[in-house]
Write a structure and sequence with these properties.
The structure is a homodimer. Chain A has about 280 residues and is α/β, with parallel strands linked by helices. Chain A has a single domain, classed as TIM Barrel, CATH 3.20.20.150. Helices cover about 45% and strands about 15% of the residues of chain A. The first copy, chain A, is built from ten helices and eight strands. In chain A, α1 links the parallel β1 (about 10-15) and β2. In chain A, α2 crosses α3 and α3 (about 80-100) packs parallel to α4 (about 115-135). The longest helix of chain A is centred in the middle third of the chain and has 22 residues, at about 115-135. Chain A starts with 11 loop residues before the first strand and ends with a helix. Chains A and B meet through loops of A and loops of B.
């Protein structure tokens, strides 16, 4: 089914990293003034802040905290490093609770010094070790499958099928999936695996941007929706066909966009959101 | 099954682009002196040459021509461009015949202005339009699935499963697959899809290099075997378990390596081949 066009900003969420030059205070003011209704907060934006107060300020400005980004990075060949990762994820749960974020996005991690299968086992172990505290705090966790070009160091979970398999194996109502078009658009099984995820009630969040041609940097050359080859409305339609009616989160890492006047960039985001998301 | 270590250079093939600063004449002399027994010739190395003579010189130097690289790039939203692509592939068949290359590697192409499904249909059409002349010339064609980070402009065929599906659909004894570890290492279905390809008798060639962490360029930062996270011997073992006993082709695009003294680089290739391929 084709998606219904987005006609207002009631579902627009922006990741703080998208407007990287802005502090959380500036982002709060600017997003609110622009009518942005949701935010996903990256943890470094909380450095040195009283986290509960950041959350209160956002809500007072009419902005919902959609998720905290990011937990994960569980695998390592070194057991002490794996324990440090679990500790950090437990801290992320505490931060999410303080902030009032109902969800933590997991960039699961990978260690290039070991086979992907081993990294995947360690990811499952790390999530299992985090779930109890997440449950106590009433925080959900979302596995974000990452593009295969990040399989060396960022995530051994690279397709929706793998994320679904992982969720099946752990089988907790607290664990679901973040669908990010940038990572997944190329996958011929994307639609059927979104449907599988939806049937299990596991589509927890939805991220958008675009894939530019040429892409000149593996990390920081994402495009605004409409600047690339991803059919964002089609994928949004697949997600919404499964009942997802949550925020459409604009997450763009871009040296080019970060170099712009961020107020103008925010207007471009809003325009691209209505036209191409 | 684990692969048997490589103990000599009888199966070592190098792509001319791996030692990009060398002309075909210089590569012929240097490869022969180094005991390299196979070459895959990139078409631009034939510019301005009498192709049959290049092939004769290589054979006279004891070097087998393993394949011609590359055909493909079939998709376009523009029908005239698609016809130009077919014409170019027919020329590639003629060049392979003149050179004495039994195989053409296909980088299938993609057009970011249209859905991947449409590019895939056009790839199938383009291959079908090339097969008759390939058969007349006794040249085989190999679909090389490319990493998903190239799905926008270089190939809409991004996994072994897709390459196998495409070969099943066309079903010609002339059409098979090139297994390149760089493009495929991350795929959790790699082993089973190599087995599927092998059962169908379609593993036509095998390319190696490595994935560096961090990879700093989407195109030209491949590593020597052993410099990255790919378990090359494991994948070679899977390919050889299917009866493949052809050349192990070193195909490295690397600004770093191209900037080195190419004679020293060739020695490093030989060392990495024995230790890590």
């Amino acid at each position: 089914m084709a998606s219904t066009p987005l006609t207002d900003f009631s579902r627009l969420c922006i990741h703080t990293i998208t407007t990287k030059p802005w502090s959380i205070e500036e982002a709060t003011d600017r997003y609110a003034a622009a009518g942005v209704r949701g935010v996903t907060v990256w943890r470094q934006w909380l450095d040195g802040r009283e986290i509960a107060k950041v959350g209160a300020n956002l809500r007072a400005a009419g902005i919902e905290v959609v998720s905290l980004c990011r937990g994960g990075f569980f695998p390592s060949i070194d057991a002490a490093e794996r324990q440090k990762a679990v500790d950090d994820n437990l801290r992320a749960v505490d931060e999410a609770a303080a902030l009032g974020a109902p969800l933590i996005v997991l960039v699961c991690g990978a260690d290039p010094r070991q086979p992907l299968e081993e990294s995947r086992r360690q990811i499952a172990d790390g999530i299992a070790a985090t779930l109890e505290r997440a449950g106590q705090a009433n925080i959900r966790l979302a596995v974000e499958p990452l593009h295969p070009m990040y399989a060396d160091t960022r995530s051994a979970i690279n397709t929706m099928a793998q994320a679904n398999d992982l969720c099946d194996a752990i089988d907790s109502p607290l664990l679901g999936v973040t669908v990010d078009v940038y990572h997944l658009w190329w996958d011929p099984h994307l639609r059927s695996q979104i449907e599988r995820c939806g049937r299990a009630g596991r589509i927890f969040s939805f991220h958008v941007c675009d894939w530019r041609s040429p892409t000149e940097d593996l990390l920081n050359d994402r495009g605004l929706m409409g600047e690339g080859c991803i059919d964002v409305p089609q994928i949004r339609g697949w997600v919404e066909d499964q009942g997802f009616d949550g925020f459409v989160e604009v997450e763009i890492f871009s040296n080019r966009c970060w170099a712009m006047d961020q107020g103008e960039f925010l207007e471009k985001i809003k325009e691209a959101y209505l036209k191409h998301a």
